[in-house]
Amino acid sequence: MEYDRLKYCFDQFYPNLCLYAHKYVQDIEVAKDIAQDAFIKCWDRLSDFDADAALKVFLYRTVTNESLNYLKHRKVEIEAHSILLEEEYMEEHFLENEVYLWLRRVIHELPPQGKRIIELSLEGARNPEIAENLGVSLNTVKTIKQKAYKTLREKLSKAEIFLFYQIYSRPGITLS
Question: What is the pTM of this model?
Answer without folding.
Answer: 0.46
